[in-house]
Amino acid sequence: MFISNAYAQAAPAAADTSLMGNMSTFLPLILMFVVMYFLMIRPQQKRAKEQKSMMDALAKGDEVVTAGGILGKVVKVSDSYVTIDIANNTPIVVQKSSITTLLPKDTLKSL
């Protein structure tokens, strides 16, 4: 015969069932969640909070940039929409959420 016989070996040692044994098993998973929270979730929540406060503070006469890159001056603000004057007597209506940046005053005059 070319194959040798396999015999059962001694029983394995008892697993460490203490609290530290269980904790060390989940420690890498917990550590990855903490790192992901501080690198991804927290900055995103902070940015969303700043964006919401900027949208709430929009007023007539503010100069803004939309997500599409259109610059203009706010003419009218409603609950969900903003009317922006992109050129003399050329208003467009966009959603508030599409406004990404609030520019300093008189920025459009310098362009």
Automatic annotation (TrEMBL):
Its main location: membrane. The keyword Membrane applies. The chain crosses the membrane at residues 20-39. PANTHER family: SEC TRANSLOCON ACCESSORY COMPLEX SUBUNIT YAJC. It holds the Pfam family YajC. It is found in: Cell membrane. This is Sec translocon accessory complex subunit YajC. It comes from Massilia mucilaginosa. It comes from the Bacteria. It is a single-pass membrane protein. InterPro entries: Preprotein_translocase_YajC (IPR003849). Keywords: Cell membrane, Membrane, Protein transport, Translocation, Transmembrane, Transmembrane helix, Transport. Belongs to the YajC family.
